[in-house]
Structures are given as C-alpha cells and as structure tokens.
Amino acid sequence: MSLVSAGGVSLFGRRQGGRVPVSRPRWRPRAALVEARPKANGSVAVQLFRADRAEDLQAEARAMARAANASVYSPELLSRKYGSSPIQVLHRTLEIVVALGSFAFKLLLDQRYGMLDQYKRKRAAELRRIFTRLGPTFVKLGQGLSTRPDICPPEYLEELAQLQDALPTFPDEDAFSCIERELGMPLDTIYSSISPSPIAAASLGQVYKAQLKYSGQIVAVKVQRPGIEEAIGLDFYLIRGLGLFINKYVDIITSDVVALIDEFARRVYQELNYVQEGQNARRFRMLYADKKDILVPDIFWDYTSGKVLTMEWVDGVKLNEQDAIERQGLKVLDLVNTGIQCSLRQLLEYGYFHADPHPGNLLATPDGKLAFLDFGMMSETPEEARSAIIGHVVHMVNRDYEAMARDYYALDFLSPDVDVSPIVPALRDFFDDALNYTVSELNFKTLVDGLGAVLYQYPFNVPAYYALILRSLTVLEGLALYADPNFKVLAASYPYFAKRLLTDPNPYLRDALIELLFKDGRFRWNRLENLLVQGRKDRDFSAKDALQPVLKLLLAPDGEELRTLVIKEAVRVTEAIMLGSLIDTYKSLPEFVRALIPNSSTSRPLVLSDTELGSMLELRDQVYRIWVLLRSSENFDPALLQPILQVLQQPEARTLGGRVVGGISQRLAARLLQQVLRTPTTGFTSIS
C-alpha cells in the first residue's frame, strides 16, 4: 500500500524514525468544538462558529449511525450464550486455573528454597506473558498492578508496565481492512500516509500514526482488536459466576461483588464503542481543558466509528518515564500534582471522571502540559456524594465519628434502615490512631485499607463509583511514588479541600465549614488560618469568594444560632485588638506617665493575669495573620470589600452590628470597673 509511511513518531514520545515525508495538501477548516474569539467582525466570527458547530454535530451523528450495532454488556445474554456451551466454559476455566496455578506453584517453590529474590525478574516476565496470553481482561488487571509500587516489587512494575502499550499486535492488514470497512472508504482516500506498523498496542486495540489527506493534520488512529468481544464476554461470564459464589457463600465480604463486576464490565464494554469514547473525550475536554496545563486531544468524527477512533495527535512522554521527562526540563511531581488537582475537579466538582489513568493514558508534553488519553472507561460521582465526600473529610479531621457514620447514608454505603451506632466505635478505633499523623504523613492507601477493614465488618455496600474513585486516586499516588517514595496524595489534595470549604456556597459545605471552625461555642482561629494557608496553595483560590458566602449565610433568616456565635467571637476579637493596641501604646509611654494610671504595672495598664493577657494577644496576632493572608492572595483587591459593605447595610446586618457594639461596650465597661475597683495580685509578672 503506497500511502503507508516508512517511519513515524511514537504516541508515547519514543522516536521510530524520521518525520513522515508527505506532500501537505491545502488545509481547510475542520469542524471543531472551539470557543469563538472576538474578531474585527464579531457577527462573522459567530456565524463561522455556528456553522462549524452545526457541521460538527452532523459529523458526530454520522459516526453514531456507523456505531449503531455496537455491543452492550448484558449478563442475561452472556448467560444464555455461554450457559449452553459448557465445553467452551470448562476449557477457558482450565486455561486460567492452570496458567495462574502454575505461576503460584513456582512462587511457592522459590520461597521454599530461598530463591525469591534471585528469580524475581524471571517470574515478573512470566507473569506478564501469562496476562498477555490470557487476553484483554487479564491485561487490564496487569495494567492496574503496574501502577502500585506499594504492592508489587520494582521488577514486576517494570514488566507489567509493558502491558500499557507494548502488547502483541494483530496483523496490519486486518487493521487496515477494518478501517476501510468501518469508514466505508478506501484507505488512500482518507490518509496521505499512515505508519506501516502500530505505534502502540493496548489491551483492546492498537494505534497508528497518520496524516489526513483533506487537511494534512497529524492524527492518531485507534483500531479495535478483532474478536475482542468474544474474549472478554467469556471472561466476564466466568468472573461473574465467581462473584455469585462469593455473594452466596463468603460472609466476610459484605459488598455486592456481582454489582461491582457488572459495573466494571459495563465500563469495559463501553470502551469497545469508540464513538462513545469520542463523546467521552469531548465532554472531558469541555469540562477540564480550560486549565492551561491540561491537554485533551480533539476528535475527528468523519473518521470515527464503533471500531475506529481518529483523534488529534499528541507528542509526549509517559508519566512513569521519569528520566525522559526530566531531560525535557520538567518535574514528574509537578505533573502528578496537576493530575491530582484535575482529578479532584473531576470527582468533586463536575462528577465526571477518567477511571483509567494508568501511565499509558497520561503524557507529559514538551511544553509541560499533562495530556489525558483513552476515554473509554469513564464514570460519574452522584451530586449528593460529591459534597458528602468533602464533608466526610471535615468530619474525619474533627474526629466527629458519629457524623462520619451518618455520611455513609449520603454516600449510598448504607441503606436508611441500618443503625450506624455500632459502626462509630470501629471508626474511632481506626481513625484515632491514623489521625495521630499530620496530613502530610497520611498515606492514602493506609486510609483506604483501614477503612476497608471497617467496611468488611458491617453491612456496607460499596457503590461502583466509589471503587473507581479509589482506583483513580491510588493509581495517581502510585505514579507519584515512582518519583518520590514519600509522596502523599492526601497532602497534595488538602489545598483543594480547603479552597472548596472556604469558597463554595453549597449549603452542605457551608455547614461543614461551620462544624470545622466552631467547637463548644468558640471560634477556632487556628483552623481558619490553616484553611487559608492551604487554600492559597490552590491556584483557583479567591479571597473574594472566601468572604461573601460566609456573610450571606450569617445574615440568612435561619442563621440566628450562627449569629449568636459570631457576635460572641466578634466581641472577643474587638476587645483583643483594642486592648492589645492599648497595651502597646502604654509600653511606649514614659515611666512617670504609667505611674499615674490606677492599678497599672510597669508593663501593662490593666488588671490582667499573664494567662489572660497571653491569650488575648495571641488571638489578636492570629486575626492579623489571617488578614495578611487574605490581603496577600494573588487576586486580592480592596474593591472586594464593597459588596461586603453593601451587605452590611441591610437591616439584618445593622441589627447584628448593634448587638456586637453592645457586647463590646459591656465588656469594656466591665474592664473599666475591674481596673478601678480591684487591686492587682502579686502573682503578676512583667511581659515586655
């Protein structure tokens, strides 16, 4: 085939030859979902955008029509199909048992004769070959293990990492025939050139690098493996049977294993529909590619079908290739942090997240962006659960285990009729020990494992979305551990949680913030200071957003209880600032002037114990530090106080202000009487 090029550039940044020498046809605009930018003639720009948008939707509709017969996961259909084929089922079962059983037997022998370390590399290669031979279902399992240095030794990680994009390929002739059959066009009318062999081969398909004939744009073309549906269908039938057995006979596992298997199988079957993957990529791009450090390739609908996906080419290096990344002047941990922040937005803002972020799907581009690839396996976090997860973190920090237990209703872990009171002691036993560490010392896997031990003891039903969240975050933590064995995903996540608590007007999160800041009727200024310190580390933190929602909540009709607490604290703060300033002024006076003040000492004008004075000055200093943190925020503008002043002019605010002034007046009057009538005790010492 003459248009097949002799070289190409790897999708994952490894050069396989020179640049493809092709003639570049005249480019014409393609339909793309892009933002219309202001131009000299605004109406013309909008018309062009609308035309492109309409053309894009039509191309997507044609792609959907080509994928109309894509397979959908159905346990009933699989049961009917394989239930009547016992010989085929028995053959596959024996194949799996013999392959994995023989490997386990070799490990036992190695352990018995003290040869585990000596044969570690050999066994790792054997396991990779076993997973490859057993097919795509087990390749998926190996991909997951390849990102877990806390589970697998380095030798296993290196071998299993090859399952991400270095799997055996299927014949190129089959791939090219599939493209022509799916798109209904000869190959030479689609591409000016296409790589003669795959750039990468994954569990469900393989990728070629090509140049579109009509535009000259470089694209990645993913083609599905032939017979893939048959292979994974039988495996999921067997795995589901094992799940039914576990649900019925293994009491120690309280989760619905079959439901988890069904959810995972549905996700894998969705990966087989490349039009669905293209739609996933488009949705992901619209939600998250607004950040300058995130790159999501676009989709070419006219060259996409159920088994062929054409998308924008991305040059980059896999995220676990630390040396190659650093040679480009980039840092792995910076990219991982970008991935974590993007994942938190996925999980907790929009709820739509990439559920398969292994290194083969995450690339570091030469300009420092993090590129997401492979949008076959996506999932969603229910809206109620997003707020509940953040609230759960707050309750954990506060060691409010009763509230933590109640969170499991909102998270859909427990049915409403389950009594949570027996769960509270188990949570207390685990988290009291875990929370003795600082946030920077907490390991995500440790928390997950410990919480898992609690879940197994009680009638929890872990929803499928939660299992995928854990998988996503543990994969990212695993990637970070390549670069830094001491990396903690919770420490990297805390600024995001702090920002959301301080700025999100969601009622659930506002209540969680109040729980965090108030305890036993007292305001915990150290918590607010810590939240501001952490929240400012998030690039999207806004001091303006952090102030106004709190005021709205304070002046709400149902905010009387909060107003009472705030008035009490406002009186304390005002008194601390006024008296602290008075003490500072007093210390600057000549000594003969100080002697004229009744009941004063050489260091203070008021009758105060050392403890009371120290507490008051610490409170004043904390408030000053918090103000400095707000003022030093990157986007701080004194104009942001104007809306606050407008709010304070409302009748409710004036009433609140009057109550604060009244409280301060009473406190100062009491201080004055105390100063005039009391004699200082001899236990006071000078604080200079």
What can be said about this structure in brief?
With 688 residues, this protein is α+β, with helices and mostly antiparallel strands.
Percent helix among the residues? Answer: 55-70%
Low-confidence segments, ≥5 residues, pLDDT <50?
4-42, 680-688
Classify the beta-strand content into a percent band: 5-15%
The total of beta strands comes to: 13
Mean pLDDT over the residues:
77
Count of helix runs: 27
> What general outline do the C-alpha atoms trace?
elongated
Report how far the terminal alpha carbons are from each other: 89 Å
Please outline the major beta sheet: 5 strands, antiparallel
Rounded to an integer in angstroms, the radius of gyration calculated over CA atoms is 32 Å
Class from secondary-structure proportions? alpha+beta
Describe the fold and architecture.
57% of the residues lie in helices and 7% in strands. The chain has helices spanning 42-66, 75-83, 86-112, 120-134, 136-145, 154-160, 172-183, 187-190, 228-249, 257-271, 274-288, 322-327, 332-350, 383-397, 401-410, 423-434, 444-457, 464-483, 489-503, 507-517, 525-535, 543-554, 560-587, 591-594, 610-631, 641-648, 651-677; strands at 191-194, 200-201, 205-212, 218-224, 294-295, 308-312, 317-318, 352-354, 362-364, 370-372, 378-380, 518-519, 522-523. The strands form 4 sheets. Strands 1, 2, 3, 4 and 6 form a 5-stranded antiparallel beta sheet that branches. A 4-stranded mixed beta sheet has the order 5-10-9-7. Strand 12 and strand 13 form a beta hairpin.
What would the keywords be for this entry?
elongated; 688 residues; five-stranded antiparallel sheet; disordered C terminus; four-stranded mixed sheet; alpha+beta; 7% strand
